[in-house]
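Margin note from the TA: students keep mixing up input and output lines. Inputs are the sequences; the output is the structure of the whole complex. Example:
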Amino acid sequence: MSLDAIIIGAGHNGLVTACYLARAGMKVVVVEKNDWIGGAAVSRSLHPGFTYSNCSYVSSLFRPEIMRDLDLPRHGLQILPYEGGAVLTRDGGYLAMFRDHDANRREFARRNPRDAEAYDRYARDVLRHCRFIRPLLMRTPPDPSRFRPRDLAELAWLGRKVMAMSEEQIAAMVRFWTMSIADYLDEYFTDPVIKAYLAVSAIIGTALGPMSPGSAYVLLHHYMGDVDGNVGAWGFARGGMGSITTALHRSLQAAGGTVRAGRGVERILVANGRAVGVRLEGGEEVRARRVISNMDVKRTLLTHVEAAELPGDLRRQVARFKTRGSSGKVNIALDGPPRFTALPEGAPMLKGDLHFTDSIERMERAYDDWKSGHFSRDPFQDMMIPTMIDPTMAPPGKHFMSCFVQYAPPKIAGRDWTDADRDAFGKTVIDQIEAHAPGFRNLILHAEVRTPRELEAEVGLTDGNIFQGELTFDQLLFNRPLPGYAQYRSPIRDLWLCGSSTHPGGGVMGAPGRNAAAEILREIRAPATMGDAYAVL
Amino acid sequence: MSDPRLHYRAPLLRTPFHPRIAEANVLNQWGAWAGYTTALALQDEEMEYTAIRNGASLYDLCPMVKYRIMGPQAAEYLGRLTLRDVVRQPVGTVRYTAWCDDAGKVLDDGTLFRLAEAEFMLCCQERHLPWLLDAASGFDVAIAEITEAVAALSLQGPCSASVLRAAGLDVSALKPFAVTRQEFAGTTLTLSRTGFTGDLGYELWLAPEAALPLWDGLMAAGAPWGIRPIGSNALNLARIEAGFIIANADFVPAEQALREDRPRSPFEIGLDWMIDWQKGHFNGRRALLAERDGQTSRWALVALDIEGNVPAEGALLYHGKTREVGHITAAAWSPATKRNVALASLRRPWDRTAADDLWAEVYALRELHYVKLMLRARITERPFFAPARRRATPPEDF
């Protein structure tokens, strides 16, 4: 029996690629180093009765076209939209966000009447940018340096999209792609808390501060998803983020594919310049017509491919691909709901995202700590309690809390993280919550603290970068991951990339995996039935 | 609700008239309008419409967005902001107006009340505070959003003047688009001869505390003329007959459009008559001048008379039954004119060249089964319904 493809890594993108290929009749095996599947879309039970979303924790970007193509709802996938959120302020107040348009306007008006009415203008402008960028998600970027008909056609398609815009819009778009979120928000709002809330999406997972140029684009990256057509909305995967990869796994099995978990790849085997298979830890060799890596580009090419198989220049270029880690995660099992002194009894904000950073200035100071090689002393948190909505992740009355924390550098002052550093990081996070919710600490049954060290060691994300490479403009579109290699092919024939290092990048989106499958199917001239991304509005 | 943080528990506010309307709304048909709970129909939509055209009707206008503009340069500022001449707008008058962005695309239309030399009220459908504040740069004006601070009630119908007289309010000298202040039950009312029905009618503006006494007073005074509260559905039918347009129904306000071809210039929604080219600079003037001189308008707002009796709501329009040239934004069978009428956005030059060969693609629901019809549409005059009584001063008794 000969395999058509080995996919390295049972994360969401690897599984998406595997599903599409298996459905096209290819014989595929996914190999996974961990005993469990999921990559960074993973749910493990680390305390009896609790299911965590250990890494990624919310869903919006995961493409509905993929859910539909791969029949994921039938395999158990369910996305639950959630209600707004809030930022708790140092003066004991809060600013909430609501799904209801008028409630949201009145909430903003509590702080500033002008900002309240400016929000519509802001949302419109961001949506305009979404309308441009969303159709690009499910298309292979053109290679502008080659003159093949398909690249020219794709460039022409892009050109037509740009030319359809007014001069003013083109200018606005280019500014937006290159600006800092702080500057961008200044154009609409004056209230520091409103700006702090809206800036969040621009720094998540990014080794940039809110005042760094390029951070506005990161906001767009987090805004261009949807929950059932509600663009910009976010939701929980019922049962934790691992239910996404579980559904993908079942879909793969239904299509005849398999996952072999528990043994990692030691080497990608290359013969005569072509990838021919992998050697697993322990020495077993598995051969296939092609190897598809869901690992990031650095891990794939620098760690698992023999150095001699790649030109030195290219290796240096790969090494320069920015994967600076910036975030950590604290997952907590709670004996009961935390009580935040600022929030009214029964506040719906508890069902959404809670933040404690009430100004852009404070966010930037948190980033300053990262620059000097330390985790933030006053970190930014995106804190959620999915069990406020999802009944499946904790026993009744008890709660799972997910704290995404920024900033945490890949190394502490140039040296590796120690267990003591990790514990100090966890304590900083828990102390910050305790300050807003006295008694919180006593509710903790179990906590999992994850720094870039743990993210790299367990999930395989180089430097703990959750996007498998930063989402800065120098590393997007036809430059992701490298100029000339943005079409999911690696420099080695029959070795493909399908992870978030490729276009359109990170987040639990599935688009890189789907686009990689499309390229592979195109190469073997298999009938592809995949279409463009659904339209916005 | 004493704690202002708890506003989210009631995302739709109740207007000051809500207690009376809730009592009258036996159908319990409510809709959201600009963050308020409003009645769509209270008891019988057709009877409510008939009250507008036959007797007198009361419609709760509170959700209308209102801004107060005050200051020594308020008139200059508003002249710079809007299309019409405001400096020469007399105190005590109301003007239907519109305002544009720099590209000459309409942001909204609304009514501008000159209440005093240096005091105006601007009423509109959408919210514009950032735009109004930004445009005020360099002018000595103060702008405040006062939607919740002013209650508003629309009294419309051929007997509306009689109702006011019976309630002790004298409007015999009040001309169309004039505004006055009068005492009623111990408070001061602002009373304007304006409305959205194309009929004789008045709008009353007052402090929220005075809302219920006014409602009760008018209902009692109006009983002989069959006064009744009406919902938005009846009003919408009347406004279509009157040929009035609404932001986000007949055009997309420029500040909200995602697609660049959606915004409309005043020429494209029939508001170009407002433009005062002589008054000096105003927002969008340069672009509008270029549009006028270059004849570059792409759309036209037209009134249509459509064959048959099936309302053509949302229908696409075709030239020669094949070429798509526009779409209908509002449509109804008009009881007042016994015509099947519509407002439409039509691509130029088909507003002129397709006049004899224009067709509406209508899906008629006949017992759960859609039947596709191609109905001939003829461009006709707007308004569809314009009775002389709407202008007569002094107003007629009925």
